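Hi C.,

You asked whether I'd gotten around to modeling the 294-residue construct. I have! Everything is below, sequence then structure, no commentary in between.
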Amino acid sequence: MSSLDRGRHAVLSLGVADSWDKSWDQIEPSSSAHILGRPLQGKRVLVTRSQHQAETLTKSLRLAGATVVDLPIIEIEPAPAADLDDAFDQLDSFDWIAFTSANGVAVFWDQLWARGLDSRALHHSSLAAIGPATERALRQRGLRADFVPGEHVAEALSAGLVSLGVGGGRVLLLQAAGARETLAVALEESGATVNRLPLYRNVVPVSAEARASRLFEAGVVDVVTFTSSSTVENLLRVIGERVDLLRRTTIACIGPITARTAEQHGLTVHVCASEHTAGGLVAALCQYFLIDFQ
Protein backbone atom coordinates (compact mmCIF):
# COMPACT_ATOMS: atom_id res chain seq x y z
CA MET A 1 0.00 0.00 0.00
CA SER A 2 1.37 3.42 -0.92
CA SER A 3 1.99 6.14 1.64
CA LEU A 4 -0.76 8.16 -0.02
CA ASP A 5 -3.26 5.35 0.36
CA ARG A 6 -2.26 4.86 3.98
CA GLY A 7 -3.02 8.50 4.70
CA ARG A 8 -6.53 8.33 3.39
CA HIS A 9 -9.58 7.30 5.33
CA ALA A 10 -10.24 3.61 5.21
CA VAL A 11 -14.01 3.73 5.59
CA LEU A 12 -14.42 0.01 5.66
CA SER A 13 -16.53 -2.82 7.01
CA LEU A 14 -16.23 -6.55 6.75
CA GLY A 15 -19.98 -6.93 6.78
CA VAL A 16 -19.71 -9.18 9.83
CA ALA A 17 -19.58 -6.60 12.60
CA ASP A 18 -22.33 -8.29 14.59
CA SER A 19 -20.15 -11.40 14.78
CA TRP A 20 -17.46 -9.76 16.88
CA ASP A 21 -19.58 -10.19 20.00
CA LYS A 22 -19.59 -13.97 19.47
CA SER A 23 -16.94 -16.55 20.17
CA TRP A 24 -14.19 -16.60 17.54
CA ASP A 25 -15.25 -19.92 16.06
CA GLN A 26 -18.74 -18.54 15.37
CA ILE A 27 -17.55 -15.84 12.97
CA GLU A 28 -18.75 -16.38 9.43
CA PRO A 29 -15.83 -17.67 7.33
CA SER A 30 -17.08 -15.99 4.16
CA SER A 31 -15.62 -12.60 5.09
CA SER A 32 -11.97 -13.51 4.43
CA ALA A 33 -9.66 -16.43 4.94
CA HIS A 34 -7.25 -14.09 6.72
CA ILE A 35 -9.78 -13.28 9.45
CA LEU A 36 -9.36 -16.71 11.01
CA GLY A 37 -5.63 -15.95 11.03
CA ARG A 38 -6.37 -13.06 13.39
CA PRO A 39 -5.52 -9.95 11.34
CA LEU A 40 -4.65 -7.85 14.40
CA GLN A 41 -2.05 -10.32 15.65
CA GLY A 42 0.96 -8.40 16.95
CA LYS A 43 -0.86 -5.06 17.02
CA ARG A 44 -0.95 -3.21 20.33
CA VAL A 45 -4.28 -1.40 20.37
CA LEU A 46 -5.08 1.39 22.81
CA VAL A 47 -8.64 1.40 24.16
CA THR A 48 -9.65 4.81 25.48
CA ARG A 49 -13.20 3.93 26.47
CA SER A 50 -14.22 4.11 30.13
CA GLN A 51 -13.64 0.80 31.91
CA HIS A 52 -17.29 -0.08 32.42
CA GLN A 53 -17.98 0.32 28.68
CA ALA A 54 -14.86 -1.25 27.22
CA GLU A 55 -15.65 -4.95 27.66
CA THR A 56 -17.18 -5.60 24.23
CA LEU A 57 -14.49 -3.68 22.36
CA THR A 58 -11.68 -5.27 24.37
CA LYS A 59 -13.02 -8.78 23.90
CA SER A 60 -13.49 -8.28 20.16
CA LEU A 61 -9.97 -6.90 19.72
CA ARG A 62 -8.46 -9.85 21.55
CA LEU A 63 -10.46 -12.28 19.44
CA ALA A 64 -8.93 -10.60 16.39
CA GLY A 65 -5.45 -11.19 17.82
CA ALA A 66 -4.68 -7.73 19.20
CA THR A 67 -2.83 -7.00 22.41
CA VAL A 68 -5.13 -4.58 24.23
CA VAL A 69 -3.62 -1.62 26.06
CA ASP A 70 -6.14 -0.05 28.43
CA LEU A 71 -6.12 3.70 28.97
CA PRO A 72 -9.56 4.79 30.21
CA ILE A 73 -9.60 8.45 29.29
CA ILE A 74 -13.13 9.18 30.46
CA GLU A 75 -14.86 9.12 33.82
CA ILE A 76 -18.53 9.92 34.14
CA GLU A 77 -19.35 12.67 36.61
CA PRO A 78 -23.13 12.86 37.11
CA ALA A 79 -24.72 16.29 37.30
CA PRO A 80 -25.83 17.43 40.76
CA ALA A 81 -29.25 15.94 41.50
CA ALA A 82 -30.72 19.38 42.15
CA ASP A 83 -29.90 20.43 38.58
CA LEU A 84 -32.13 17.64 37.28
CA ASP A 85 -35.16 18.21 39.50
CA ASP A 86 -37.20 20.34 37.10
CA ALA A 87 -36.97 17.82 34.26
CA PHE A 88 -37.81 14.84 36.48
CA ASP A 89 -40.77 16.74 37.93
CA GLN A 90 -42.13 17.09 34.37
CA LEU A 91 -41.50 13.56 33.09
CA ASP A 92 -45.15 12.92 32.29
CA SER A 93 -45.24 15.99 30.01
CA PHE A 94 -42.78 14.74 27.39
CA ASP A 95 -43.89 13.05 24.18
CA TRP A 96 -40.40 11.73 23.50
CA ILE A 97 -37.33 11.08 25.64
CA ALA A 98 -34.17 10.87 23.54
CA PHE A 99 -31.16 8.98 24.89
CA THR A 100 -27.85 9.75 23.19
CA SER A 101 -25.51 7.37 25.04
CA ALA A 102 -25.45 4.30 27.25
CA ASN A 103 -23.92 6.49 29.95
CA GLY A 104 -26.94 8.75 29.75
CA VAL A 105 -29.24 5.77 30.24
CA ALA A 106 -27.30 4.70 33.34
CA VAL A 107 -27.29 8.14 34.94
CA PHE A 108 -30.95 8.74 34.09
CA TRP A 109 -31.95 5.38 35.56
CA ASP A 110 -29.97 6.01 38.76
CA GLN A 111 -31.67 9.38 39.16
CA LEU A 112 -35.06 7.83 38.51
CA TRP A 113 -34.56 5.27 41.27
CA ALA A 114 -33.09 7.86 43.65
CA ARG A 115 -36.40 9.70 43.38
CA GLY A 116 -38.43 6.60 44.18
CA LEU A 117 -39.55 6.19 40.57
CA ASP A 118 -39.26 3.38 38.04
CA SER A 119 -40.20 2.62 34.43
CA ARG A 120 -43.86 3.42 35.12
CA ALA A 121 -42.89 7.10 35.27
CA LEU A 122 -42.12 6.93 31.54
CA HIS A 123 -45.39 5.45 30.31
CA HIS A 124 -46.47 8.78 28.77
CA SER A 125 -43.38 9.00 26.58
CA SER A 126 -41.92 7.27 23.56
CA LEU A 127 -38.21 6.46 23.87
CA ALA A 128 -35.50 7.03 21.26
CA ALA A 129 -31.96 5.63 21.38
CA ILE A 130 -29.13 6.87 19.18
CA GLY A 131 -27.64 3.41 18.59
CA PRO A 132 -27.48 -0.25 19.60
CA ALA A 133 -25.35 0.25 22.73
CA THR A 134 -27.83 2.82 24.03
CA GLU A 135 -30.74 0.60 23.04
CA ARG A 136 -29.12 -2.32 24.88
CA ALA A 137 -28.68 -0.19 28.01
CA LEU A 138 -32.40 0.59 27.91
CA ARG A 139 -33.31 -3.05 27.37
CA GLN A 140 -31.17 -4.11 30.35
CA ARG A 141 -33.43 -1.92 32.46
CA GLY A 142 -36.64 -3.32 31.06
CA LEU A 143 -37.25 -0.44 28.64
CA ARG A 144 -37.92 -0.72 24.93
CA ALA A 145 -36.69 1.90 22.47
CA ASP A 146 -39.47 3.01 20.13
CA PHE A 147 -36.98 4.37 17.61
CA VAL A 148 -33.32 3.67 16.80
CA PRO A 149 -31.90 5.26 13.61
CA GLY A 150 -30.16 3.12 11.03
CA GLU A 151 -27.10 5.36 11.22
CA HIS A 152 -26.02 5.99 14.78
CA VAL A 153 -25.41 9.74 14.70
CA ALA A 154 -27.35 12.78 15.91
CA GLU A 155 -28.30 13.82 12.38
CA ALA A 156 -30.02 10.49 11.72
CA LEU A 157 -31.74 10.51 15.10
CA SER A 158 -33.18 13.97 14.53
CA ALA A 159 -34.28 13.15 10.97
CA GLY A 160 -36.02 10.02 12.17
CA LEU A 161 -37.83 11.77 14.98
CA VAL A 162 -38.95 14.54 12.63
CA SER A 163 -40.31 11.94 10.21
CA LEU A 164 -42.24 10.42 13.12
CA GLY A 165 -43.99 13.74 13.71
CA VAL A 166 -42.11 15.07 16.69
CA GLY A 167 -42.77 18.65 15.53
CA GLY A 168 -45.21 20.32 17.88
CA GLY A 169 -44.40 17.84 20.64
CA ARG A 170 -42.21 18.03 23.72
CA VAL A 171 -38.84 16.27 23.77
CA LEU A 172 -36.56 15.60 26.73
CA LEU A 173 -33.06 15.41 25.26
CA LEU A 174 -30.59 13.61 27.52
CA GLN A 175 -26.96 14.43 26.75
CA ALA A 176 -23.52 14.96 28.19
CA ALA A 177 -22.54 18.49 29.12
CA GLY A 178 -20.95 20.16 26.12
CA ALA A 179 -22.61 17.85 23.58
CA ARG A 180 -23.11 19.07 20.02
CA GLU A 181 -26.09 21.32 19.36
CA THR A 182 -27.01 19.49 16.15
CA LEU A 183 -29.78 17.31 17.53
CA ALA A 184 -31.50 19.97 19.62
CA VAL A 185 -31.38 22.55 16.84
CA ALA A 186 -32.86 20.18 14.25
CA LEU A 187 -35.69 19.18 16.57
CA GLU A 188 -36.46 22.79 17.45
CA GLU A 189 -36.48 23.75 13.77
CA SER A 190 -39.12 21.06 13.22
CA GLY A 191 -41.36 22.79 15.74
CA ALA A 192 -40.62 20.61 18.76
CA THR A 193 -40.14 22.05 22.23
CA VAL A 194 -36.84 20.65 23.45
CA ASN A 195 -35.74 20.41 27.07
CA ARG A 196 -31.98 19.82 26.99
CA LEU A 197 -30.80 18.00 30.09
CA PRO A 198 -27.02 17.59 30.58
CA LEU A 199 -26.98 14.50 32.79
CA TYR A 200 -23.22 14.18 33.24
CA ARG A 201 -19.76 15.42 32.31
CA ASN A 202 -16.98 13.42 30.71
CA VAL A 203 -13.93 14.12 32.87
CA VAL A 204 -10.33 12.92 32.64
CA PRO A 205 -9.32 10.30 35.24
CA VAL A 206 -6.65 11.52 37.64
CA SER A 207 -4.18 8.77 36.69
CA ALA A 208 -4.57 9.16 32.92
CA GLU A 209 -1.85 11.73 32.21
CA ALA A 210 1.02 9.81 33.79
CA ARG A 211 -0.06 6.52 32.23
CA ALA A 212 -0.52 8.05 28.77
CA SER A 213 2.96 9.56 28.87
CA ARG A 214 4.55 6.24 29.80
CA LEU A 215 2.70 4.31 27.11
CA PHE A 216 3.43 6.62 24.20
CA GLU A 217 7.00 7.49 25.12
CA ALA A 218 7.79 3.78 25.47
CA GLY A 219 6.36 3.19 22.00
CA VAL A 220 4.05 0.39 23.12
CA VAL A 221 1.03 1.57 21.12
CA ASP A 222 0.47 0.79 17.43
CA VAL A 223 -3.22 1.72 17.13
CA VAL A 224 -5.35 4.25 19.02
CA THR A 225 -9.11 3.71 19.06
CA PHE A 226 -11.49 6.60 19.63
CA THR A 227 -15.14 5.87 20.38
CA SER A 228 -16.42 9.42 20.89
CA SER A 229 -15.33 13.01 20.47
CA SER A 230 -14.74 13.11 24.22
CA THR A 231 -12.13 10.35 24.00
CA VAL A 232 -10.28 12.40 21.38
CA GLU A 233 -10.42 15.62 23.34
CA ASN A 234 -9.51 14.04 26.68
CA LEU A 235 -6.52 12.14 25.30
CA LEU A 236 -5.22 15.27 23.60
CA ARG A 237 -5.71 17.14 26.85
CA VAL A 238 -3.48 14.74 28.79
CA ILE A 239 -0.85 14.52 26.03
CA GLY A 240 -0.70 18.28 25.61
CA GLU A 241 2.14 19.49 23.40
CA ARG A 242 3.32 15.92 22.82
CA VAL A 243 0.64 15.35 20.17
CA ASP A 244 3.34 14.10 17.78
CA LEU A 245 3.32 10.89 19.82
CA LEU A 246 -0.12 10.17 18.37
CA ARG A 247 1.02 10.77 14.81
CA ARG A 248 3.22 7.70 15.02
CA THR A 249 0.16 5.47 15.44
CA THR A 250 -2.78 4.28 13.36
CA ILE A 251 -5.86 6.29 14.37
CA ALA A 252 -9.19 4.43 14.29
CA CYS A 253 -12.54 6.13 14.94
CA ILE A 254 -15.95 4.61 15.59
CA GLY A 255 -17.72 7.01 13.24
CA PRO A 256 -17.62 10.25 11.24
CA ILE A 257 -18.33 12.65 14.10
CA THR A 258 -15.45 11.26 16.14
CA ALA A 259 -13.23 11.26 13.04
CA ARG A 260 -14.10 14.89 12.34
CA THR A 261 -13.12 15.86 15.88
CA ALA A 262 -9.79 14.07 15.49
CA GLU A 263 -9.10 15.80 12.17
CA GLN A 264 -10.02 19.19 13.60
CA HIS A 265 -7.24 18.62 16.12
CA GLY A 266 -4.73 17.87 13.38
CA LEU A 267 -4.79 14.07 13.52
CA THR A 268 -4.84 11.85 10.44
CA VAL A 269 -7.65 9.30 10.69
CA HIS A 270 -6.73 6.02 9.03
CA VAL A 271 -9.83 3.99 9.89
CA CYS A 272 -13.44 5.15 10.28
CA ALA A 273 -16.01 2.41 10.90
CA SER A 274 -19.00 2.35 8.59
CA GLU A 275 -21.03 0.67 11.34
CA HIS A 276 -20.69 2.87 14.38
CA THR A 277 -20.38 0.15 17.02
CA ALA A 278 -17.54 -1.61 18.82
CA GLY A 279 -17.94 -4.55 16.45
CA GLY A 280 -17.92 -2.26 13.43
CA LEU A 281 -14.74 -0.58 14.64
CA VAL A 282 -12.91 -3.90 15.06
CA ALA A 283 -14.15 -5.11 11.67
CA ALA A 284 -12.88 -1.93 10.00
CA LEU A 285 -9.50 -2.27 11.71
CA CYS A 286 -9.19 -5.86 10.53
CA GLN A 287 -10.00 -4.87 6.96
CA TYR A 288 -7.50 -2.02 7.08
CA PHE A 289 -4.66 -4.27 8.16
CA LEU A 290 -5.68 -7.04 5.76
CA ILE A 291 -5.38 -4.60 2.86
CA ASP A 292 -2.08 -3.32 4.21
CA PHE A 293 -0.81 -6.91 4.46
CA GLN A 294 -1.79 -7.62 0.87
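If it helps when you're writing up: The domain at 76-202 is CATH 3.40.50.10090 (Rossmann fold).

Thanks,
B.
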